[in-house]
């Protein structure tokens, strides 16, 4: 592992020196992005199913194309190890590898520009992703059309628009199919609550429908000027529109937001502590931290019914003598870990598998000390791709990848805790 790093005393540099330094670092960063992209392609080459030893069947049966149409196969779980080394999830690593393969094999002009330093890696990867469903010929046409403007000269939004237009021109039938699919993606759902206890209602529909909703909100908001006049603070204009939306979406709601909307049935997990020395912050599960004062305001305004549940006695949670996991133990494991425990995983939901770190069939207990939440994809990686996990303490998981690197996962995130071990792929099968 390379650890040598030059240290520059920026405090002693004049303005011109700081600019020279940051320009050099920017050039180094762009070169590092190119190098990582090259490595991602080579990783795909090394993990073609035919490159595996005859006795190694891991991921061979479920190998998939590394990128778009015409690209070679790559074994199912190859991205997991690569992703951990660059501190991203297996999903993020699969996208990186797919972009690298598509650039080298389907978008040669962009790749030549990346190698020459005239095309930004970010721009090239965006084109690779946007053309993945195109045929090699269609992708090649887009390649030639956008390579000149992929050097960063355009603002990102303008570059996205150019690429979108070229992709639609290259594959009009696919563009129509995407439009038809998008038309079916209607939704009205509550978005993530931010750190100050505010939420967003997302409504997705065609532009005409949404414009009609906007017009209706404007019309009702205009009728609320008596109770919420223009002479009030500027923010009242937006308050009036929110009140109008509440009236339209729920006729039983009161137009005065200080009173609050009608009661609704919803379940929210709010984690609090009775310790007087603890922080004055509650954690709203799936949403994030909120001050206790804000929690009281929200619950009071909503007229909520609050159920207080004592803290689960984690030390006293005895193992069960079965493979199946009872609800009380599942709840305890979720409270201990708070989400997926695979290195650099992002999922914090409850709808995940609970994995026995030491398999139950090999004597592993169904207990807090041996269970960890994993998404189904990460569970398959652990089961079939040579990864192992151990729980030295509740809430701490130590992973070992098939190449001997170790990762420690706890409530603070993931850390790579060892360097590489000198060996070839597959040598640790027996170990």
Task: Summarize the structure in words.
The chain is α+β, with helices and mostly antiparallel strands and 431 residues long. It has four domains: 158 residues, no CATH class; 62 residues, no CATH class; 33 residues, no CATH class; 90 residues, no CATH class. It has 13 helices and 13 strands. The protein has a four-stranded antiparallel sheet with strand order 10-11-12-13, with no helix packed on it. The chain has a three-stranded antiparallel sheet with strand order 5-6-7. A hairpin with a 7-residue loop joins β1 and β2. α2 packs across α3. The longest helix is centred in the N-terminal third of the chain and has 32 residues. The radius of gyration is 27 Å and the shape is globular. It starts with 14 loop residues before the first helix and ends in a 15-residue tail after the last strand. The C terminus is likely disordered.
Global structural class: alpha+beta
Please write the string of helix (H) and strand (E) elements.
HEEHHHHHHHEEHHEEEHHEEHEEEE
Cα-based radius of gyration, to the nearest Å: 27 Å
Strand content bin: 5-15%
Amount of helix: 40-55%
DSSP strand count = 13
- Residue-averaged pLDDT, rounded? 79
Q: Report the principal-axis shape.
A: globular
Q: For the largest beta sheet, what order do the strands appear in spatially?
A: 10-11-12-13
Cα-to-Cα separation, first versus last residue: 22 Å
- Poorly predicted segments: 257-265, 420-431
Number of self-contained structural domains? 4
Number of alpha- plus pi-helical segments: 13
Biggest β-sheet description: 4 strands, antiparallel
């Amino acid at each position: 592992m390379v650890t040598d790093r030059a240290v520059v005393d920026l405090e002693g540099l004049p303005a011109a020196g700081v600019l020279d330094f940051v320009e050099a670092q920017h050039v180094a960063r762009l070169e590092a992005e190119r190098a990582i992209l090259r490595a991602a392609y080579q990783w795909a080459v090394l993990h073609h199913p035919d490159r595996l030893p005859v006795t190694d069947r891991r991921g061979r049966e479920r190998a998939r194309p590394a990128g778009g149409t015409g690209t070679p196969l790559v074994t199912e779980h190859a991205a997991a190890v690569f992703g951990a080394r660059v501190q991203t999830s297996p999903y993020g690593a699969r996208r990186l590898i797919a972009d690298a393969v598509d650039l080298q094999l389907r978008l040669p002009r962009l790749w030549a520009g990346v190698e020459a330093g005239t095309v930004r890696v970010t721009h090239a990867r965006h084109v690779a992703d946007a053309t993945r469903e195109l045929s090699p010929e269609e992708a090649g046409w887009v390649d030639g059309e956008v390579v000149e403007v992929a050097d960063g000269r355009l603002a990102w939004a303008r570059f996205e628009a150019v690429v979108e237009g070229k992709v639609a021109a290259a594959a009009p039938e696919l563009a129509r199919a995407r439009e038809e699919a998008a038309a079916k993606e209607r939704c009205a759902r509550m978005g993530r609550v931010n750190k100050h206890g505010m939420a967003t209602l997302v409504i997705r529909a065609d532009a005409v429908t949404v414009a009609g909703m906007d017009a209706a909100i404007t019309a009702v908001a205009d009728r609320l000027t008596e109770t919420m006049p223009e002479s009030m603070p500027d923010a009242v204009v937006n308050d009036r529109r929110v009140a109008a939306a509440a009236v339209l979406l729920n006729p039983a709601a009161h137009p005065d937001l200080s009173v609050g909307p009608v009661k609704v049935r919803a379940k929210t997990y709010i984690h609090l502590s009775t310790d007087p020395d603890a922080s004055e912050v509650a954690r709203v599960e799936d949403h994030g931290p909120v001050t206790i004062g804000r929690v009281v305001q929200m619950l009071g305004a909503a007229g909520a019914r609050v159920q207080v549940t004592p803290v689960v006695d984690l030390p006293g949670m005895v193992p069960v003598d079965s493979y199946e996991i009872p609800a009380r133990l599942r709840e305890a494991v979720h409270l201990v870990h708070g989400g997926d425990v695979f290195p650099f995983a992002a999922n914090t939901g409850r709808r995940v598998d609970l994995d026995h770190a030491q398999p139950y069939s090999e004597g592993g207990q169904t207990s807090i000390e041996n269970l960890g939440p994993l998404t189904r994809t990460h569970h398959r990686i652990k089961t079939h791709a040579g990864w192992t996990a151990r729980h030295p303490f509740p809430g701490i998981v130590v992973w070992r990848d098939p190449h001997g690197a170790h990762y420690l996962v706890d409530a603070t995130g993931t850390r790579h805790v060892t360097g590489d071990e000198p060996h070839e792929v597959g040598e640790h099968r027996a170990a």
